[in-house]
Design a protein that fits this description.
The protein folds into two domains: 44 residues, no CATH class; 129 residues, no CATH class. 17% of the residues lie in helices and 33% in strands. It contains four helices and twelve strands; from the N terminus they run E-E-E-E-E-H-E-H-E-H-E-E-E-E-E-H. Strands 6-7-10-9-8 form a five-stranded mixed beta sheet. A three-stranded antiparallel beta sheet has the order 1-3-2, with no helix packed on it. Strands 4-5 form a two-stranded antiparallel sheet.
């Protein structure tokens, strides 16, 4: 959101965001430099938008048009992540990773189940090149990825209640998402 309180037909209001009023801008940025590669200003609901896909899917597909068959890795948040989007990107030669809302259509049942995992445990399920991963940090972290092997783990640092930092195991896909975003 770019803050703006004046009069404009492009201005959006989002109650739960820190910047509540302004221009909503979708951006594709390079993870190494932070520079914006491509952007799109949200102008509201439009009839020319693709009707078979959700708004989040249309935004990501539009912004990644120039990356087709580049074997790039794209990361996005849970507003955008769907099984359908991951499959479309994979078909276009783009790898992706993103957190996912557990109530999305097409997810395996283990993602939707109330968590029986202990802290730092994870489980995964693969289907057609898309890996669904559920990792228990302080809360369950649900991720879809086409870029990482779901059984690979890495070490990440976590702050303890007493302020000390400890290294804990984490699925590589979760660490990749945190590094890119």
């Amino acid at each position: 959101m770019i803050p703006f309180k004046g009069q404009s037909s492009l201005k959006q209001y989002m109650l739960l965001k820190p910047v509540k009023r302004g221009y909503k801008v979708w951006c594709l940025a390079d993870s190494e430099t932070g520079y914006v590669i491509k952007f799109d200003i949200y102008t509201g609901k439009s009839n020319d938008r693709c009707t078979e896909n959700s708004l989040g899917e249309c935004v990501v597909i539009s912004l990644t048009q120039d990356l087709k068959h580049s074997n790039s890795i794209v990361a996005f948040g849970n507003f955008f992540t769907t099984v359908n989007l991951m499959q479309m990107l994979l078909n276009n030669g783009i790898y992706s990773t993103g957190t996912v809302r557990a109530n999305r259509k097409g997810l395996p049942s283990m993602m939707k189940d109330k968590c029986t995992l202990k802290r730092r445990e994870f489980q995964f399920q693969c289907n057609c090149g898309i890996e669904a991963i559920k990792w228990m940090d302080n809360k369950p972290v649900t991720t879809l990825t086409t870029s990482d092997n779901p059984s690979d783990i890495t070490l990440v640092s976590r702050k303890n209640k007493d302020g000390t930092i400890s290294m804990v195991t984490c699925p590589t896909a979760v660490a990749t998402y945190n590094t890119i975003t």
